[in-house]
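User: what does the whole thing look like in 3D?
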Amino acid sequence: MALRSLLTRKTTLGLGLRGLQTFSLPDLPYDYGALEPAISGEIMQLHHHKHHQAYITNYNKALEQLEGALAKGDTTSIVKLQSAIKFNGGGHINHSIFWKNLTPVREGGGEPPHSSLGWAIDTNFGSLEVLVQKINSEGAALQGSGWVWLGLDKESKKLVVETTANQDPLVTKGQHLVPLLGIDVWEHAYYLQYKNVRPDYLKNIWKVINWKYAIEVYGKESK
Amino acid sequence: MGSFCYHTFPASSHLLVSDFAPGFKSPKLPYLSKQQERWFSRSQGASKIFAYYGLREPPYKLDALEPYMSRKTLEKHWGGHHRNYVEGLNKQLEKTEVLYGCTMDELVKVTYNNGNPLPEFNNAAQVWNHDFFWDSMQPGGGDMPKLGVLQQIEKDFGSFTNFREKFVEAALTLFGSGWVWLVLKREERRLAVIKTSNAVCPLVWDDIPIISLDMWEHAYYLDYKNDKGKYVNVFMDHLVSWNVATGRMARAEAFVNLGEPKIPIA
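Assistant: Here's the predicted 3D structure for the full assembly of 489 residues, as structure tokens:
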């Protein structure tokens, strides 16, 4: 009921009959080839232009169907659509973070974190090397498809390393978790270049990790 | 020292497959050498026994499925992924004795542990899945099933076209890594298309798989990049082995009564 009045309110604001926001593919802040040789341009193009776009397209489609189901009060459909929304919406969330987690070497990619996040890493894990080791081993051990994360627990103020399956966002592992860094370990993220040697991909990706973004998010969320 | 598995000689379903497919290269069966190894070490008074599973070769050369599945894919998929699962499994089995003497089927069911999988499940199931997958394909495959299999498909799906649609749809709507199966459901006594995640296979629910398709990205990414639809259609049109499916159906009918009971009317 409340949702329906929200929709009509949006209509009067002139957002069109549906008033439903559609999502679109964010631009990469760098060229497809800018992350070479850590990640090939071919992978970046497919990953961004095909995979991420597909998640967005299907997310929009699922939301449209959800809107229809909500309007009709069709609970069966509302519930049935949840998995498609979680998967495709999660894919959109995760990849949007991922592109910001990466940056070309010439723009600071791979430069280790300093300031507050650097100290937090040393406190929580001992050193950056230990953290990288932990992330790499958890990422390599992940069975199937998923992500490996460095996250901040806003409640306990601790840094954590977590993995999520498929496109589950980090928050599914803990409602207070905020993603600082995520590494996509779906095979499409590395297969064309590294084939089945996921550990090599994980070793090399650190050369283009954008710690500046992680520091930004950490600074904002740890207040 | 209790053991979950007590077959003294592995009754491998692979043996029956090769019976029905005389034209194929006969698969090497390293299970035999495992048996010999056990007797040998026992006779020498050794206290430690090892179980080793071997990497079975596909029943065709690695380039035989070109151009639908490239030799490069077979090399990486079979020689890399499948081999890693076998070696990983053997390493895990070195540390435990309870899982000895199992056939592959038994090992998969036991390690699945009714939904709470043991650490060995992933490797065991993926070894089984890939053995089954290579066998599910053949050079010059595709086309349509004949006779009994076709009849059963038409009975349970309405038509072959309908089954094919369902199979393709299942493959394209799978979230994440997994497999698509044509399976004979034991209790319902009918065929069904199901999809499973990661390493799960219908064996764990005691159903009988007839055909499988690997939808992990590594199975198609080198050949088709993200074009899953093309991969699935190529599989159905050119790779799936209905010969093998026929053999598996025939064996399955020894365990599942698919016929109508002939009840005499007084």
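In plain terms: The two ends of chain B are 57 Å apart (CA to CA). Residues 6-30 of chain B have pLDDT under 50 and may be disordered.
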